[in-house]
Structures are given as structure tokens and as C-alpha cells.
Write a structure and sequence with these properties.
binds zinc ion; 3-stranded antiparallel beta sheet; alpha+beta; 42% strand; 2 helices; SH3 type barrels
Length: 149
């Protein structure tokens, strides 16, 4: 999760791509040929001019990040430093609950035991996960440390 370096041909709509030091949201990616030959990718953004790059050029991408304020200011990303997502199963008949668990086996086991012992067969799963907003400056700082030598 977070910043990755990928070849331009793998960039998809919705990705954030770093262009000349600024993160820009990709609206569409289209394959093309350079006038002199060779594969190219044309990226159009939610704002600003399109960018044509060689299909094999490596670009910095943030995938799954959501811009909340201005694209150049803040990014929202899943929080990776704490626990992973936590889920809870609730019986839709009697509202009995598994309590919060962070593993799928425990949730499945609770539901099957409840069905076996009580006979209720409908369940509602609620998943809780965490996100963190960060300024792009800090994101760029992290990105710099992720660059392979
Ligand atoms: Zn029940």
C-alpha cells in the first residue's frame, strides 16, 4: 500500500502519479505510439495538461489513496501502523455478536457455532479499519526513502 514505482503502462485511472514533483490524479490512461515509433502512454489528469511518457518509463504512483482537500495538499491513506481491519459478526435474528476479531477463522467459527447451537442462520458483518491523512510534503519524503538505490 502507498507509494510504488511502476512502469507507465501499468498506470490506471484513479491513480495518483507524481509529475515534476506534484501528485496528480489520473483520469484516463491511453496507449499510443510515439511519432518516431515505440510504445507510449498518454495520461490525462483531473486537472492540468496531459502527459505522454514512454510505456516502459518508471513513474511514482500512489494507488488507493484518496484526495480530500486540494490534490497538492492532503492525501488520505489506509493506516498501516496499527492493527489491521477488525470485523464483527452479528446474528440478524437475536443480535448476539462475535465481538471484534481480527481473523476470518474466528468469525466463521463463531457463526457456524451459533447456527449449530441456536439455529439462526443470518449474520451481518461490520468491518472497521483506520485511515490517516498526511500532507503531500510528508508523502514525498516517504517516497524518497522508498526509491531503490
Ligand atoms: Zn442468533
Amino acid at each position: 500500500m502507498g507509494e510504488r514505482w511502476v512502469v507507465a503502462v501499468l498506470v490506471r485511472a484513479g491513480d495518483l502519479v507524481r509529475v515534476r514533483g506534484r501528485w496528480r490524479r489520473v483520469r484516463a490512461a491511453r496507449d499510443e505510439l510515439f511519432p518516431m515509433g515505440g510504445p507510449a502512454v498518454v495520461l490525462t489528469f483531473t486537472q492540468g495538461a496531459p502527459w505522454r511518457v514512454h510505456a516502459a518509463e518508471v513513474v511514482a504512483v500512489r494507488r488507493g489513496a484518496t484526495v480530500i482537500d486540494s490534490p497538492s495538499d492532503w492525501l488520505l491513506s489506509p493506516e498501516n501502523s496499527g492493527s489491521g481491519p477488525i470485523a464483527e459478526m452479528e446474528c440478524t435474528t437475536c443480535l448476539d455478536s462475535s465481538g471484534p476479531l481480527d481473523e476470518l477463522d474466528g468469525l466463521t467459527g463463531w457463526c457456524l457455532a451459533h447456527a449449530r447451537h441456536v439455529g439462526h442462520t443470518g449474520f451481518r458483518r461490520t468491518v472497521t479499519d483506520f485511515h490517516r491523512a498526511a500532507r503531500c510534503d510528508r508523502v514525498r519524503g516517504n517516497l524518497a526513502t522508498d526509491v531503490p538505490p
